[in-house]
Design brief:
CATH architecture of the largest domain: 3-Layer(aba) Sandwich
Largest sheet: 7 strands, mixed
Strand order of the largest sheet: 8-7-6-1-2-5-14
CATH topology of the largest domain: Rossmann fold
Number of domains: 2
CATH superfamily of the largest domain: Crotonobetainyl-coa:carnitine coa-transferase, domain 1
Number of helices: 17
Shape: elongated
Number of strands: 14
CATH class of the largest domain: Alpha Beta
Strand content: 5-15%
Radius of gyration: 25 Å
């Protein structure tokens, strides 16, 4: 059964995490994604970053399934000509070059608009197309620091802290996937392509502003009060989290904890009061929870319909009862032996299901295949390989 984006072709010249996550999301939904990697034997830097198996990083597998890989020297005019031929039969071109690089290669928006006038041209940058930082390199941790995300994680001592995963890359990639789909929908209505620009700094600040920046939202009424969260609280044998936002949940938790004095505390009598006294509330709750074992307490909280969860260890996630029930994870055999554990496509479509059709490609695994699809004959393919215009699996 075809996916929602079956028939859409995307040429992906991004690397690392954000761009590849965006295009994998669309590939899961049926798009034919051709990943363009640089020559020199390394390809996308993410191939070697992190925990390796058979020479390929787990993170590369995580964001590159359902794609075909070609290695193309875009500094060679013949490589650019091959890309142009691909663009003629494609719907989307996406790159993550620093501002100015695509123009120097002749593959910026005006250059490719001449090749296909209804192309969706997508540029992902770290800082934006213009401005004082536009030319600087940007990685997830760098943008976390610049955007306020690291400051938002500061503890009582005021020391800023990075979020311990590539959150900015992920937010940028998921935004990109949605924007590409929106641009394709607009083209279906109007027949016109467009240029979509997204940068990681904007994505991070927008993500942060939804809640953490409440104190900076009302112009002329900025405050020093920071966004607060209910803390994890300790039990006799672990950690749990409770959400006590509503009066109903708070009263139910008081009953489950079997301590009426918590409910009588004047600091916690209203939603607003609890919201501004979350540190005190967390401490007061933990004074009670540390006397309970997690299993017994969670049973009581469940019976009282209090929103809560036990903290799941990283090695326990795959065995979590709801992860198991949802079929969140799957295992597939790797071509070189062994297997890979990864997530299924997150959304489920009843009429146009997403699917995992192939795992992450080898470097240049599909170069010869794609050239043949373009009508490049065997002799011409041999020449392109021999002269380093393309790399990958040996031509037929």
């Amino acid at each position: 059964m075809p996916g929602a984006l079956t028939g859409v072709r995307i040429i992906d010249a991004t690397s690392l995490f954000a761009g590849p996550l965006a295009t994998m999301t669309l590939a899961d939904q049926g798009a034919d994604v051709i990943k363009v990697e640089p020559p020199g034997g390394q390809g996308d830097l993410l191939r070697k970053m992190g925990i390796l198996h058979q020479g390929v990083a787990a993170t590369f597998h995580a964001v590159n399934r359902n794609k075909r890989s070609i290695v193309l020297n875009l500094r060679d005019e013949r490589g650019q000509a091959i890309l142009h031929r691909l663009i003629r039969d494609s719907d989307v071109f996406i790159h993550s070059f620093r501002p100015g690089v695509a123009a120097r290669l002749g593959i910026d928006e005006p250059g490719l608009r001449a090749v296909r006038d209804d192309l969706i041209h997508v540029s992902l940058t770290g800082w934006g197309e213009t401005g004082p930082l536009a030319a600087r390199p940007a990685y997830d941790s760098i943008v976390q620091a610049a955007s306020g995300l690291a400051a938002s994680q500061a503890g009582p001592d005021g020391r800023p802290e990075l979020i311990h995963n590539a959150l900015v890359d992920k937010v940028s990639g998921l935004n990109l996937a949605q924007c590409i789909t929106a641009a394709l929908f607009a083209r279906a209505q109007t027949g016109a392509g467009q240029h979509v620009e997204l940068n990681m700094l904007d994505a991070a600040v927008a993500f942060l502003w939804l809640d953490v920046m409440q104190h900076r939202t009302f112009v002329g009424h900025e405050s020093e009060e920071r966004n607060a969260w209910m803390r994890l609280v300790q039990t006799r044998d672990g950690w749990i989290i409770l959400s006590l936002n509503s009066d109903t949940s708070f009263r139910a938790a008081v009953e489950a904890l079997d301590d009426p004095s918590l409910g009588e505390d004047p600091r916690f009598q209203t939603v607003q009061a609890r919201g501004t006294a979350l540190d005190a509330l967390s401490e007061a709750v933990e004074e009670r929870t540390r006397h309970w074992d997690s299993a017994t307490l969670c049973e009581r909280l469940t019976a009282a319909d209090v929103p809560h969860a036990r903290v799941t260890g990283l090695e326990e996630v795959e065995d979590h009862e709801q992860v198991q029930a949802n079929g969140t994870l799957r295992e597939d055999p790797l071509p070189g032996g062994g297997a890979i554990r990864h997530t299924r496509p997150v959304a489920r479509f009843t009429a146009t299901p997403s699917s995992v059709r192939r795992l992450a490609p080898g470097l240049g695994e599909h170069t010869a295949e794609v050239l043949a699809e373009l009508g490049v004959d065997a002799r011409a393919r041999d020449t392109l390989f021999a002269e380093g215009v393309v790399e990958g699996d040996a031509p037929d």
